[in-house]
């Protein structure tokens, strides 16, 4: 009996050990990744807030680390330079529209914009978007620098200009107008003011501009 009881306890211990091992294996990496994501978000939001309050040039990595209560090397582990903070949001949404285009290259221009806008509304980090906008308003000179950096990091998006030559002034006016409408949309999302009605109205405006100027995907150069 004692031997049977020992074997039973041993078997139960083995089962418990397997369960614990499985829990660590399945949950451990997930917990670590979530912890890293939260820390990264904290550092990013801290930096954007400091840039908005004190200026991009005056804020240092040490300042960001102090307010976020992490080591400076932790900050640079996630964001190697200050420039990486200001390109984070525009780069992430640009990567998303590129991904949507690559998933279905046959999408018409307006359908792509509509799908992209809905995706942004459903998934955007509103706090990050609002902080990015506040940072951009407080540091207007940084906006052009961020746009240039994003363009360099995501070259060759594969978006054609759909019949409008880059040197065509009328086409250039159309692309600028579409970027302006897109800027209003992004502002509405960042400020939490975007509604279904406004979404549809802005989409109709883009359709009218695209139809009259014969421009398409290449118009979607992002603005902060």
Automatic annotation (TrEMBL):
GO molecular function: DNA-binding transcription factor activity; transcription cis-regulatory region binding
Domain HTH tetR-type: 37-97
UniProt-listed SUPFAM superfamilies: Homeodomain-like
InterPro entries in the record: DNA-bd_HTH_TetR-type_CS, Homeodomain-like_sf, HTH-type_TetR-like_transc_reg, HTH_TetR
Protein name as catalogued: Transcriptional regulator, TetR family
Keywords: DNA-binding, Transcription, Transcription regulation
Chain coiled-coil ranges: none
Highest rank taxon of the organism: Bacteria
Entries under PROSITE patterns matching the protein: HTH_TETR_1, HTH_TETR_2
Pfam family, any one: TetR_N
DNA-binding region: 60-79
């Amino acid at each position: 009996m004692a031997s049977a009881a020992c074997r039973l306890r041993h078997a139960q211990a083995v089962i418990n050990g397997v369960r614990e091992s499985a829990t660590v294996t399945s949950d451990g990496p997930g917990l670590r990744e979530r912890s890293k994501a939260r820390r990264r978000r904290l550092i990013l939001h801290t930096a954007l807030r400091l840039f908005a309050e004190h200026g991009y040039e005056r804020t240092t990595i040490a300042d960001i680390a102090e307010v976020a209560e992490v080591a400076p090397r932790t900050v640079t582990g996630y964001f190697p330079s200050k420039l990486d903070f200001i390109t984070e949001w525009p780069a992430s949404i640009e990567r998303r529209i590129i991904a949507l285009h690559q998933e279905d290259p046959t999408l018409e221009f307006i359908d792509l914009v509509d799908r992209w806008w809905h995706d942004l509304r459903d998934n955007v980090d509103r706090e990050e978007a609002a902080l990015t906008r506040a940072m951009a308003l407080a540091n207007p000179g940084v906006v052009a620098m961020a746009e240039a950096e994003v363009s360099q990091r995501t070259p060759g998006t594969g978006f054609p200009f759909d019949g409008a030559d880059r040197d065509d002034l009328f086409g250039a006016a159309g692309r600028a107008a579409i970027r302006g409408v897109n800027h209003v949309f992004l502002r509405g999302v960042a400020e939490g003011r975007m509604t279904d009605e406004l979404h549809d109205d802005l989409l109709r405006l883009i359709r009218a501009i695209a139809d009259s100027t014969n421009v398409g995907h290449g118009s979607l150069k992002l603005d902060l």
